[in-house]
Amino acid sequence: FRWLNGDGNTLTGEGRLTVTESKFFGNVFFRNLGRLIKIPILDDISFATIEAPFRIANNRVTTNHFTMDGPFLSVSGDGTVGFDHSLDFLIELTFPHLPNYVWPLDLVLHLLGKVPATALWLNLRGTWDDPEYSFRHLDTAEQTLLSLVEFLWGTVTPE
Predict the structure, then answer these.
(1) pLDDT tens digits for 95-125?
(2) Torsion angle of alpha carbons 76, 81, 86, 88, nearest 10°?
(3) Which helix (H) or strand (E) holds 105?
C-alpha cells in the first residue's frame, strides 16, 4: 500500500482478504438480508471460506469478485466500499444444498413445470451502518425460489 505524507486520500494498493471458519453474530448486513428474503436465521450465520481480492484507489475499496461459501447460503459479487462508508455492490445469493431437498423440488416441478431458479441477484447500496438491499430482477422463477427457501428454512439448520 502507498500513500503520500500520511494522507489517506492518496492511499492506493492491492490485496486479498481470506477468512476461514467465520461466524457473524447480529450483523446488520445479514439481518437486513434475512428480512428481505424472509430467513430470520441470517442474524447469526457462518461461512467456511470468504475470499476477496481488492484494490484501493480514489477513497474506495473495490473488489471484482468476492465469495462467501457457507453450508446454507453462498454469496458472491463485486462492488465498492467508500471511505465515507458508502456501498455499491451487485450480489448473487445461491443455496448450494437446496437440491438435497428433492421432495419440495418435485412438487414445484409438478406445479410449475420447471425447476425454480437457484440464485437471486441483489443490489446492495446505502452505507455501512444502513445497508439497503433490493432485488435486481425478480421473475416467476426467483419468486418461486424465495417461496421455497422460506418454506424450507425451518427444516434447514446451518451449522
Answers:
(1) 776 655 545 555 555 555 554 456 778 888 9
(2) -40
(3) helix 102-112
Lowest-pLDDT choice from 52-66, 107-121, 132-146: 107-121
pTM, two decimal places: 0.70
Of 138, 154, 146, which Cα lies nearest the Cα of 37? 146
State the DSSP string of 40-83.
Answer: GGGGEEEEEEEEEEEEEETTEEEEEEEEEE-SS-EEEEEEEEET
19's enclosing H/E stretch is strand 13-25
The grid cell for 158 is: 446451518
- Rounded to 5 degrees, what are φ and ψ at 105? -65, -35
Q: Which three cell numbers stand for residue 24?
A: 457473524
User: What are the cell numbers at 37?
Assistant: 428474503
DSSP string computed for 78-93: EEEEETTSEEEEEEEE
Sign, CA dihedral 149-74-44-54, equals: negative
Amino acid at 37: I
What is the DSSP-derived secondary structure letter of residue 12?
Answer: B
